[in-house]
């Protein structure tokens, strides 16, 4: 990149629309020079209160109504007003065009930081990363949310909001076991959704009725069915299973389940790429603004304010600090991307031994490959370097409830690097972070009860609130629900049961 | 190409207000209890402000399947300052290093109380939720002495000033056209015949005379049709609709005799404040009259009412007499909703108590919407209590009395006094 001197950008802390546009243009020019591939974006200026609104609905500009969002709003508001927390600088929506929110209380340097971070950093990640490409449809999400909001509002009018709330409560309880972890979600589109809505309602109802048919059509197939399992394969997506198979749900209830499931699915990639995504955005706001500074476009005062915020964001307190609350994804992500660039540009002998394929390579190409093809778990397994483990002074503690003491499994030394890296990667594996619970069996001919099975991992049991979740599941299913737990040695025990027998009036 | 910047600061404010009110609705039980605790705890003067409310986190938790404690877990943490591989050490108390795979942190937070801030409106709404003065609605509807006149179409009777000319003329024209119709037909026939006769017969033909006579008679008939008939008159109609009075006056009667110590006065003060707050929610305009008394009663301003010290004996009837006189002089009962609140330790001169009852029964209660008496005493009821008790049976719903021991009793007592009674809402 050639260092050309450019005319200085506006200074001072007061922002104006013109100043923001100037900054956006300058940042966009630098981003283009670096070859960042982004969706077009829109900047929306909002107030602090609107920012809290957006927080409460998981950052989405439109969302259906539910008390739990009110709860989040109250909690956020309380913490914010008491100064216990600042609001995040930015919320960015993975849509096309990408929408980035700027809070009107922020100073001009902060606005520039947010533009670089969200409108260019996150934006390019959304466009490039394979998970987002595969699982979310940036073109359709806003339309789908509008559809969802209207549909649920209609349901509330028709069936009373208590009835809708009850279904939503139950769906929310199953949200983290309501995603397809492996299958690809089909594209959504507003027209298609609306068009097929009626059709689907009728069709699904017919399917369900068929499954629960009490009058046998053919006595031959009846005999075959006797010992046929249902579902033939265990199903990991509980909400999907409920939507398609719950015997007593009304068509509108099925649609509500579907809406919650679809939106949950949309957020799934974000959970899987937190470290990468935030790190990527931090790397780029840091790099873009520094480049602008080197070109002479930014004042020293701007840089000081920017660096102070940046440092706060990427600070990692040590494990024994009172501020410690786990690994800061911003810190780890930023450090990893910086480290990858270092390995590309100034590799040491150690880096060449560990990363022969990227040491000394063109960093922008390496970056794009890494950004496009990984998620947190694999990204860490692939790119966490010994250098960085030493810098973070990582250590791994084994906590086995059968042993009297905790044991240090590995530290940042030659013996420990591989264990540490594998362990940290495992820590970001959503599959092992969330309990593995699947739909195991439905008693088709008997009491129609639904059996879930929890496959334990490392002897970890379930949190005691599973009874409440079962309650919600049986609310949707309409009949008894059982939860079994299968241990590593294959023994199965029933750990929870909800007896329900509901008849459609 | 410049970027599109949209200023959204001025649209769609309070997007969360629906969700917020749903949350409050859903957990009304818990929130109400928390509000009640708050009121017990602190001075009533702050009641006008919003309030930080804390309700048990587990009541509002949203359950999810998650890992519990136990089993084998391995956690990577940053900032190693002392450990070497293979070292063993005791589990730290409190589990500060036990970050259970990221989910324990969230669960831990869920167990704590959920703290949030209610706005002033929300707080007071919950506070007053089931609170309404007995008979409030009923008496307003029954006892209306204020009316508003509104237009209500037209009538056929009324006073001349109310005649609606437009309507009247329109109806008169209609009447004239409808009655004149048949005559005009006959007239056309007669005129045609007259013309035919004039051409065919001689001037003195009797037939001609007959037709001319008929025409003259018909014309007289037509001319006799009145331009305006009393039947046509239309008057603007105005009816009186009852208008509930939107102003109230509240009488605070406080015993400041020697036997009322500071603490008792404080209790009384809170009682008055709660009533005042309630009235501010029900009426647009409220006046407060402070009357304090020992052996003689005086009307004072608010500062004097609570602060100055007096001593001596007690003659409660003096205050009631003053209240009655003030009502008569300044607050005609038709225009004002009158509320009385009396606080005393119940210690009165023995021969004065029956007089108090009579005053209340015959002079004060008939003018009042509601009269509440609290006796602040920890011991047995005093003689005033015994007299007032006789009133309770004869004026149900308009007179209430309660015995209060400590500050903590105020709120429950207040609710008891002003409890909304189901049958009264019917």
Overview of the molecule:
The complex is a heterodimer of chains A (505) and B (426). Chain A is of the alpha/beta class and 505 residues long. Chain A has four domains: 17-129 and 273-309, no CATH class; 178-271, no CATH class; 314-432, no CATH class; 434-501, no CATH class. Chain A has helices spanning 17-34, 48-56, 67-81, 108-128, 130-135, 141-159, 161-173, 190-211, 219-226, 238-245, 251-272, 274-295, 300-313, 329-345, 349-354, 363-373, 376-383, 386-392, 417-427, 430-433, 466-477, and strands at residues 41-46, 90-93, 98-103, 395-400, 406-411, 436-442, 450-455, 479-486, 492-501. In chain A, strands 6-7-8-9 form a four-stranded mixed beta sheet, covered by helices on one side. In chain A, strands 1-3-2 form a three-stranded mixed beta sheet. In chain A, strands 4-5 form a two-stranded antiparallel ribbon. In chain A, helix 6 (141-159) packs across helix 7, helix 7 (161-173) packs parallel to helix 11 (251-272) and helix 14 packs antiparallel against helix 16 (363-373). Chain A is globular and about 80 Å long. Residues 220-224 of chain A have low confidence and may be disordered. Chain B is of the alpha/beta class. Chain B folds into three domains: 16-60 and 108-129, no CATH class; 160-238; 247-425, von Willebrand factor, type A domain (Rossmann fold). Helix content of chain B is 44%, strand content 19%. Chain B is built from 15 helices and 13 strands. In chain B, the strands form three sheets. In chain B, strands 10-9-8-11-12-13 form a six-stranded mixed beta sheet, with helices on both faces. In chain B, helix 12 (353-364) runs parallel beside helix 13 (383-394). The longest helix of chain B has 36 residues, at 165-200. Chain B is flat and about 150 Å long. Mean pLDDT of chain B is 75; it is low at 95-111, 130-145 and 420-426. Chains A and B meet through helix 1, strand 1, helix 2, helix 3 and helix 7 of A and strand 1, helix 1, strand 3, strand 4 and helix 4 of B. Strand 4 (395-400) of chain A pairs antiparallel with strand 3 (72-77) of chain B, so a sheet runs across the interface.
């Amino acid at each position: 990149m050639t260092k050309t001197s450019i005319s200085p950008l506006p200074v001072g802390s007061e922002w104006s629309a013109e100043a923001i546009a100037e900054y956006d243009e300058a940042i966009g020019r630098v981003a283009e020079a670096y070859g960042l591939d982004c969706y077009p974006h829109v900047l929306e200026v909002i107030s602090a209160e609107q920012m809290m609104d957006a927080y409460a609905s998981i950052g989405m500009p439109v969302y259906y109504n539910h008390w739990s969002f009110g709860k989040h709003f109250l909690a956020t508001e309380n913490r914010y007003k008491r100064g216990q927390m600042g609001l995040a600088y930015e919320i960015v929506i993975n849509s096309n065009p990408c929408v980035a929110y700027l809070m009107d209380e922020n100073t001009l340097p902060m606005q520039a930081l947010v533009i670089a971070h969200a409108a260019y950093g996150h934006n390019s990640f959304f466009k490039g990363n394979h998970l987002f490409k595969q699982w979310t449809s940036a073109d359709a999400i806003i339309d789908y949310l509008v559809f969802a909001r209207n549909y649920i509002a209609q349901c509330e009018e028709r069936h009373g909001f208590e009835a809708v709330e009850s279904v939503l409560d139950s769906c929310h309880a199953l949200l983290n076991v309501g995603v397809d972890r492996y299958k690809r979600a089909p594209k959504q589109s507003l027209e298609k959704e609306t068009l097929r809505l009626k059709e689907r309602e009728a069709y699904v109802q017919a399917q369900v009725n068929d499954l629960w048919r009490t009058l046998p059509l053919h006595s031959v197939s009846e005999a075959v069915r006797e010992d046929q399992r249902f579902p033939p394969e265990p199903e990991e997506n509980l909400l999907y299973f409920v939507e398609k198979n719950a015997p007593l749900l009304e068509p509108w209830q099925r649609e509500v389940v579907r809406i919650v499931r679809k939106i949950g699915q949309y957020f799934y990639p974000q959970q899987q790429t937190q470290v990468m995504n935030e790190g990527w955005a931090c790397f780029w706001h840091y790099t873009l603004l520094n480049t602008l500074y080197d070109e002479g476009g930014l004042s020293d005062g701007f840089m000081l304010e920017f660096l102070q915020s940046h440092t706060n964001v990427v600070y990692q307190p040590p494990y024994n600090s009172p501020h410690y609350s786990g690994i800061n994804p911003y810190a780890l992500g930023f450090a990893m991307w910086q480290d990858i660039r270092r390995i590309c540009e100034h590799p040491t002998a150690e880096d060449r031994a560990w990363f022969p394929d990227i040491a000394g390579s063109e960093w922008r190409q390496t970056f794009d490959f890494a950004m496009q093809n990984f998620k947190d778990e694999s990204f860490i397994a692939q790119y966490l370097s010994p250098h960085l483990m030493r810098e973070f002074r990582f250590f791994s503690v084994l906590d086995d409830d059968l042993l009297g003491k905790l044991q240090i499994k590995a530290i940042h030394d030659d013996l420990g690097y591989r264990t540490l890296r594998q362990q940290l990667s495992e820590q970001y594996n959503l599959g092992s972070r969330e309990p593995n619970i699947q739909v195991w069996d439905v008693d088709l001919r008997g009491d129609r009860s639904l059996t879930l099975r929890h496959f334990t991992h490392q002897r970890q049991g379930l949190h005691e609130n599973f009874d409440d979740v079962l309650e919600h599941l049986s609310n949707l299913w309409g009949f008894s629900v059982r939860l079994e737990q299968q241990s590593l040695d294959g023994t199965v025990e029933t750990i929870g049961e909800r007896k329900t027998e509901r008849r459609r009036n | 190409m410049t970027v599109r910047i949209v200023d959204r600061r001025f649209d769609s404010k309070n997007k969360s207000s629906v969700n917020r009110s749903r949350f409050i609705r859903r957990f009304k039980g818990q929130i109400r209890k928390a509000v009640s605790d708050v009121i017990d705890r602190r001075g009533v003067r702050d009641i006008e402000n919003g309030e930080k409310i804390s309700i048990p986190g587990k009541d509002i938790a949203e359950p999810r399947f998650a890992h519990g404690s136990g089993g084998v877990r391995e956690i990577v943490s940053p900032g190693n300052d002392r450990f070497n591989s293979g070292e063993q050490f005791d589990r730290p108390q409190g589990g500060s290093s036990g970050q259970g795979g990221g989910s324990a942190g969230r669960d831990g937070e869920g167990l704590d109380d959920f703290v949030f801030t209610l706005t002033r409106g929300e707080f007071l709404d919950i506070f007053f939720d089931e609170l309404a003065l007995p008979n409030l609605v009923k008496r307003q509807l029954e006892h209306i002495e204020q009316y508003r006149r509104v237009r209500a179409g037209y009538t056929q009777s009324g006073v001349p000033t109310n005649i609606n000319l437009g309507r009247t003329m329109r109806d008169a024209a209609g009447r004239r056209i409808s009655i004149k119709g048949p005559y005009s037909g006959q007239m056309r026939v007669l005129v045609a015949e007259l013309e035919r006769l004039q051409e065919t017969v001689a001037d003195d033909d009797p037939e001609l005379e007959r037709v001319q006579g008929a025409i003259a008679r018909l014309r007289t008939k037509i001319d006799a049709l009145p331009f305006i008939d009393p039947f046509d008159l239309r008057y603007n109609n105005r009816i009186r609709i009852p208008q509930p009075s939107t102003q109230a006056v509240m009488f605070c009667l406080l015993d400041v005799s020697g036997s009322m110590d500071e603490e008792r006065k404080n209790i009384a003060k809170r009682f008055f404040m709660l009533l005042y707050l309630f009235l501010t929610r029900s009426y647009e305009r409220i006046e407060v009259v402070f009357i304090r008394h020992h052996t003689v009663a005086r009307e004072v301003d608010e500062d004097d009412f609570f602060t100055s010290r007096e001593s001596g004996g007690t003659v409660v009837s003096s205050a009631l007499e003053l209240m009655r006189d003030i009502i008569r002089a300044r607050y005609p009962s038709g225009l004002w909703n009158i509320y009385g609140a009396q606080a005393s330790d119940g210690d009165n001169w023995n021969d004065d108590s029956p007089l108090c009852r009579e005053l209340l029964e015959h002079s004060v209660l008939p003018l009042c919407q509601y009269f509440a008496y609290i006796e602040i005493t920890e011991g047995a009821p005093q003689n005033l209590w015994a007299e007032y008790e006789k009133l309770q049976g004869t004026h149900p719903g308009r007179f209430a009395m309660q015995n209060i021991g400590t500050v903590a009793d105020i709120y429950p007592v207040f609710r008891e006094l002003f409890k909304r009674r189901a049958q009264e809402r019917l």
